[in-house]
Amino acid sequence: MLDSQPVDTAQKFNTMQIELVRVDDAFHFEAVGMSGVKQHMDAATDIGGHNEGARPMEMLLMGLAGCTAIDVILILQKQKLTIDDFRLKVDGLREKGATPAPFQKIHITYLLKGQLDPDKVKRAIDLSMDKYCSATAQFRPSAEITYSFEIA
């Protein structure tokens, strides 16, 4: 039997909301979240898109990259380390011709510049991957996530 008592979600959950609006008569969309920043999405031209925005699956990888980047930078900053440049490359593998086609393997390459201790960089990335990054937690049930890093 289901519990019919209402749950006060405001006390238990953080709410996130976006709005998606169709921009043209094809597949160009504008999405805006609670931050108020607008993002554009579009479909591939071979299905009628106009290449006016990122593909939804690209945005998932961008979210993963942004999530782990914020974690790693914050951890390294707390250690009083100076990062001269920080970049990520993310490669996602999906099965060709499958529907749906979730990511099965994801590899993140962290590219850092600065006087950085490789052991501390590795530890920061491990903490992001294993403990802090919510986007990583979303992908883990369906995708193998690996990483490498380079310090210049």
UniProtKB/TrEMBL annotation:
Stored InterPro entries: KH_dom-like_a/b, OsmC/Ohr_fam, OsmC/Ohrsf
Domain of life: Bacteria
Pfam family, one: OsmC
Protein name (record): OsmC family protein
Organism from which the protein derives: Spirosoma terrae
